[in-house]
Amino acid sequence: GEDIVSKKGRNVELAAKAEDPDGSIVKYEWDWNADGKFDTSLASATIKHRFQQYSYAVLRVTDSDGATALDTLRIVICPQGMVTLEDKKYCMDRYEWPNRKDEMPEVNISWTDAAAKCREAGKRLCTGEEWLHACQAGQEQNFPYGFQYKASACNTKDQTWIKGKSIAAAGRFPECVTPQDIFDMSGNVMEWTDTGMENQKM
Predict the structure, then answer these.
(1) pLDDT at 158
(2) Residues ≥6 apart with Cβ < 8 Å to 163
(3) pTM of the model
(4) How crowded is residue 187: how many other Cβ atoms within 10 Å of its Cβ?
């Protein structure tokens, strides 16, 4: 099934659909966190469950002959400090890594180390497509803040009044923000994506 965007503690209704041309479906089992242990077993195809975090829900159906089939979907619940991109169903840090407002972003880090830091935090590097979608606010706009360039909005090369055009703390430029409240996607520092290529910030 399609991935589901939800919030922590919200009741999510899941409806399974399965059929057996020479018999019937006798059991639906749900593994709520993809750990291999099926937590709920029932004869009905519909169930509600409260998810507390980003999860992979696994469904196993069994027919009257004992044959089984599996399906998996994601329950997208973004952790605190991340923004939910609901139309594409993924999460994005609100600020440049380490994702804390008014702290300096971490720089001079390899792609391998960046990917490892994401994994340690229970996250991943976004794809290049996801990064661009978030930067353009899903609207094909040219800049995170809109369609027209604003020299004063972000920490870009036009910010000559900043001595040495130095790197700024995360969130230092309040206009350099997308409609989803993701900061500094233009200027400041470049960011890695899962392609291994740095995004050349606009």
Answers:
(1) 65
(2) none
(3) 0.79
(4) 22
